[in-house]
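Researcher: We're teaching a course module on how sequence relates to structure. For the next exercise, students receive a sequence and then see the predicted structure as C-alpha cells, so they can try to spot secondary structure elements on their own. Here is the exercise chain.
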Amino acid sequence: MAEGFLKQYSNFEVFSAGTDPGDFVQPFAIEVMREVGIDISSHKPEAVQKYLNNEFDYVITVCDGAKESCPVFTGKVAHRLHIGFDDPHGKSMDIFRRVRDKIKEKIDEFTGEFREED
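Model: And here is the predicted structure for the students to work with:
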C-alpha cells in the first residue's frame, strides 16, 4: 500500500519488497486502495534480497517486524526510515482500511517536504 501512495508522486522512483513476500497482493489491500483511487492490482510481491546491492536515497521499512528482520542493505543508502504499522495480513477489511489510512498519513508527512519544493 505504501508503494501505491508513493507512486502517486512522479518525482519518486519506488521499489517495494518484503522479507517474506507472498505469491500475490492481498485482495483486501487491492480493494482498500481502489477505494481511494489507487490501483495496485498489477503489483507483484518481490523479495527484499533482489535489491540488496542497489543504491537508494531512502530505504523505508513499514511493518513492525520488518525493522528487526530486514536484511542489511550492502549498497549505498543515504537515509533509513522506519514507520511502524501492524501487518493487516489475515485481518478484516476494516483493519486494512485503518492501516491504509495510517500509511497514507505517514507517507503524506514524509513526501510533504519534497512536494513543497516542486
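Model: If you want an answer key for the exercise: The chain has one domain: 2-110. The CA atoms of residues 61 and 82 lie 5 Å apart.
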